[in-house]
Amino acid sequence: MTSPRHLIPWKDCTHGTLYRIDSPYASFGVYRADHESFLVVDQRHERPYLVEEYHVDLGLSLGIIRPLEALGQAPVDPCYDSDASYTALLRFLEAREASYTSTPNGRAALAA
Known about the structure:
disordered C terminus; 5-stranded mixed beta barrel; alpha+beta
């Protein structure tokens, strides 16, 4: 595992890996290599859904993701091919967010 104090460069991100990230509204994301993006849960609306966000290294105006730590393979491939696999990935990331943000060192640890 990588040190949480260092940004993982975009070129070192691997498909299907779950990362702890620094992002304005998510703590975890799964890298999707074919889109060069991270799938994260957007919970800012009435109903949570998956969105694609980009690494800051890409220099895009949408590049807001800073991967801090690789946590291993996600149980669902981010190239979801059905409603069931989309829902499974959404629920997986929602559960990770809920368990992380409900701890005393949750998202505050990212800002430190």
